[in-house]
Amino acid sequence: MSATPLWPGGLRGALNLSFDNLGEAAELEMGALPADAPLGRHPTAIEVLPELLDRLATREIRATFFVEGLNAELYPELLREIGARGHEVGYHAWRHEQWANLTAAEQAESLARGRAAFERLGLQIAGLRPPGGLLGAGGVEVLREAGLRYCSPAGCEAGLEAGVALLPFRWRDVDASCVLPPLAAARKQMTGSSAAVEPASFVAALEQAIDDLAENGGYLAIVLHPFMLDWLDAGNLATLLDRVALASERDGIWVAPGAEVADHVLAHGERFAGGAVFDSTSWT
């Protein structure tokens, strides 16, 4: 990693804390809910997210929430609240469809539908995190044509391609990687073993990743899921959020929503061209 400062104010590291999924969208896509199940009452939206927003506010952390477009219909006021609190709302497909399984035309249709739904709430969508981690047939071109400025697929390092900023995430920095069978390789990177990872060990691995970012520079995306916060538990979540806050206060790391990081990448393309590396691993 080059020692050349990449980020605003001469900072060498940038960190985006993000939260993927909301409500029952993914469960509907997987067929995990009965056909007559009531919608708009999911615990992650009614109970988990409001408390999480308070925890972030206490530490003055602004994050990115990649949510499915369906949530604009089921939880419009909650999405407005996310934006009003200074966080970013990003797109995570309409109902958590595996993005790489969609044709380019289907991706374009999903993006148009999602953008329109969020715009009706006064929210402008800048970025996509593709469910499953892969971009698929449309690549970055379908995002650019839809007016999005960035995407966050599986991979590493910030980059720029065809006028779209790339802000990848590493599977080892995703809470679901601790338990999902297809992501055993990510667990081995974290702990040296492919066995399921305990919450405290996951947080310790993320703390080390932040330490590495402070020392070496670069870009880091941390990916959590509201439905997994009970698994993480309140104490481990507090430890992690405190470390993220400290990264900004002490370590000279720029902690910002993805859209702001992407705008910096787009404004300084010469620093980031060709920098991103894609990972073909998917959680499916």
Essential attributes:
alpha/beta, TIM Barrel, five-stranded parallel beta sheet, four-stranded mixed beta sheet, 12 helices, 14% strand, globular
Secondary-structure topology with pairs:
Layout: E1 13-20, H1 25-30, H2 43-58, E2 64-67, H3 71-74, H4 76-84, E3 88-91, H5 104-119, E4 127-128, H6 141-146, E5 150-151, E6 155-156, E7 159-161, E8 164-166, H7 184-191, H8 199-216, E9 218-224, H9 229-232, H10 234-249, E10 253-255, H11 258-267, H12 269-272, E11 277-278
Parallel strand pairs: 1-2, 1-9, 1-10, 2-3, 4-5, 5-8
Antiparallel strand pairs: 6-11, 7-8
Helix pairs in contact: 8-10
Structure at a glance:
The protein has 284 residues and is of the alpha/beta class. It has helices at 25-30, 43-58, 71-74, 76-84, 104-119, 141-146, 184-191, 199-216, 229-232, 234-249, 258-267, 269-272; strands at 13-20, 64-67, 88-91, 127-128, 150-151, 155-156, 159-161, 164-166, 218-224, 253-255, 277-278.
Explain this structure to me?
- There is one protein chain.
- The protein has 284 residues and is of the alpha/beta class.
- It has one domain: Alpha-Beta Barrel (TIM Barrel).
- The chain has helices spanning 25-30, 43-58, 71-74, 76-84, 104-119, 141-146, 184-191, 199-216, 229-232, 234-249, 258-267, 269-272, and strands at 13-20, 64-67, 88-91, 127-128, 150-151, 155-156, 159-161, 164-166, 218-224, 253-255, 277-278.
- Strands 1, 2, 3, 9 and 10 form a five-stranded parallel beta sheet that branches. The protein has a four-stranded mixed beta sheet with strand order 4-5-8-7. The protein has a two-stranded antiparallel ribbon with strand order 6-11.
- Helix 8 (199-216) packs parallel to helix 10 (234-249).
- It starts with 12 loop residues before the first strand and ends in a 6-residue tail after the last strand.
- The relative contact order is 0.19.
- The model has no long low-confidence stretch (mean pLDDT 95).
